[in-house]
């Protein structure tokens, strides 16, 4: 596989993970990421089930546990801040505290994956693919900034609003299913003095949550609200902040302070809770992995584990198929489809908050991982 050049779009979770496995199996991966460096921001995400075996084999499990959120518990408060309940056995974001799952900030995992791959993978930050033209010999790729290049294969790991998916498969509207909720996550100083603790306030249509992060030096704030699809450019941060200011104007509790601090947040992120459903995840020499192909939405709590498993299976099947990428792509799809389907069902099984634990654990283990040759 020494000469198989693979271009991967997106350097969050799925991108660096598939690059890791491709490099380990002798391919030559290049990752192009639109952001100028590994992107900051995002909620605490969970890695569980078979995904834990994969990160262990990658040699990053220890670093992930060291970066874990290490929560002690959570409470719910009313609009005036009076405590309604508290527990030290579970959290809303991560479930039971005594489980083997690893919960860490999305950007910390992204950084760990970047560190694990930067010596074996070429990274091209601050750039984006503008065109893909397939020939018998490969895919001619043009970029916003860099010079055109030719690759043997292209993999879209660029998330819910995947650019590669749009270029190779068509408009997002054909594949996206909105779940009727928007969620914003951003970092503010730990002005509440929370000690490894999560606090939530649930209103009629809105939810506000804060939890301490990075040794209590910061808070990650979450603001969620029910809404049909909004006509807002997901890159227009000011317009998105205005939506939150309107939605949370009368939400009570810490809303006014959080909205004020939001304006200075370095990593504001707002997106709809949405799933991606596609009939196929590859066309010609191009394939998709992670949220780009099969977002299960943050409501499933399984998006990151799906990305890790998908990356492992995709690289493994491509390597097993020798030079026959069509065969590799089709076996990747056959292996992953039932697993993805199980995990995409999770949001519908949640009433309020995360889906029941036993169902999540079953879904997180609903694949027999093959052992691929090194
Ligand atoms: C900033 C951010 C915050 C998030 N917050 C949460 C959260 O709070 N809770 C949650 O459950 N999930 C969150 N997610 C999604 C979560 O990371 C994924 O569900 C999961 O980890 C699978 O990851 P992925 O690598 O497939 O996609 P993503 O993590 O979405 O990564 C996609 C990557 O592609 C890059 N990209 C996008 N367009 C282009 C382009 N044109 N060219 C090159 N690169 C491009 C993005 O910058 C990003 O680095 C967030 C993602 C991001 C990027």
Distance between the termini: 12 Å
The CATH fourth-level homologous superfamily of one domain: FAD/NAD(P)-binding domain
Main CATH class of one domain: Alpha Beta
Please give the largest β-sheet. 7 strands, mixed
Bound molecules: flavin-adenine dinucleotide
List how many beta strands DSSP finds: 20
Précis, in short:
This protein is an alpha/beta fold. 30% of the residues lie in helices and 28% in strands. The chain is built from eleven helices and 20 strands.
What does this structure look like?
This protein has 374 residues and is an alpha/beta fold. The protein has a domain at 5-40 and 105-175 and 275-364: FAD/NAD(P)-binding domain, CATH 3.50.50.60. Helices cover 30% and strands 28% of the residues. It contains eleven helices and 20 strands. The protein has helices spanning 14-24, 50-57, 61-66, 106-117, 163-168, 237-247, 255-262, 291-294, 303-320, 325-344, 357-364, and strands at residues 5-9, 28-33, 44-47, 73-77, 83-87, 90-91, 95-96, 102-105, 122-125, 129-134, 139-143, 149-151, 153-156, 176-189, 197-202, 206-213, 218-226, 269-276, 282-283, 286-288. The strands form five sheets. The chain has a seven-stranded mixed beta sheet. α1 (14-24) links the parallel β1 and β2 (28-33). The radius of gyration is 20 Å and the shape is globular. The N and C termini lie close together (12 Å). Bound molecules: flavin-adenine dinucleotide. Flavin-adenine dinucleotide binds at residues 9-15, 32-35, 39, 41-43, 45, 106, 128, 157-160, 163, 185, 269, 290-292, 298, 303-304, 307.
């Amino acid at each position: 596989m020494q000469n198989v050049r693979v271009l991967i779009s997106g350097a969050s979770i799925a991108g660096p993970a598939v690059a890791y496995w491709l490099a380990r199996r002798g391919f030559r991966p290049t990752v192009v990421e639109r952001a100028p460096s590994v992107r900051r921001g995002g909620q605490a995400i969970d890695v569980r089930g078979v995904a834990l075996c994969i990160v262990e084999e990658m040699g990053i499990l220890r670093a992930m546990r060291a970066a874990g959120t290490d929560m002690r518990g959570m409470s719910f408060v009313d609009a005036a801040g009076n405590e309604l309940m508290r527990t030290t056995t579970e959290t809303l974001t991560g479930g039971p505290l005594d489980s083997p799952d690893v919960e860490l900030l999305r950007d910390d995992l992204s950084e760990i994956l970047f560190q694990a791959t930067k010596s074996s993978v070429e990274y091209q930050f601050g750039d984006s693919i503008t065109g893909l033209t397939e020939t018998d010999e490969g895919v001619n790729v043009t970029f916003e900034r860099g010079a055109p290049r030719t690759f043997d294969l292209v993999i879209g790991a660029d998330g819910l609003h995947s650019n590669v998916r749009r270029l190779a498969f068509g408009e997002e509207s054909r594949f996206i299913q909105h779940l009727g909720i928007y969620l914003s996550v951003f970092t503010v100083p730990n002005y509440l003095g929370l000690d490894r603790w999560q606090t939530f306030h649930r209103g009629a249509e809105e939810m506000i949550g804060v939890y301490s992060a990075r040794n209590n030096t910061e808070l990650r704030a979450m603001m969620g609200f029910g809404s049909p699809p909004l006509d807002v450019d997901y890159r227009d941060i000011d317009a998105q902040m205005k939506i939150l200011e309107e939605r949370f104007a009368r939400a009570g509790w810490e809303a006014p302070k959080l909205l004020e601090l939001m304006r200075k947040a370095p990593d504001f992120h707002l997106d709809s809770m949405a799933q991606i459903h596609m009939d196929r995840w590859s066309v010609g020499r191009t394939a998709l992995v992670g949220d780009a192909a099969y977002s299960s939405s943050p409501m499933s709590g399984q998006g990151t584990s799906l990305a890790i498993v998908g990356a492992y299976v995709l690289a493994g099947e491509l390597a097993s198929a020798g030079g026959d990428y069509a065969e590799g792509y089709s076996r990747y799809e056959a292996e992953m489809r039932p697993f993805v389907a199980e995990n995409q069902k999770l949001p519908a099984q949640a009433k309020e908050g995360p889906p029941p634990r036993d169902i999540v654990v079953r879904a997180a283990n609903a694949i027999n991982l093959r052992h691929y040759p090194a």
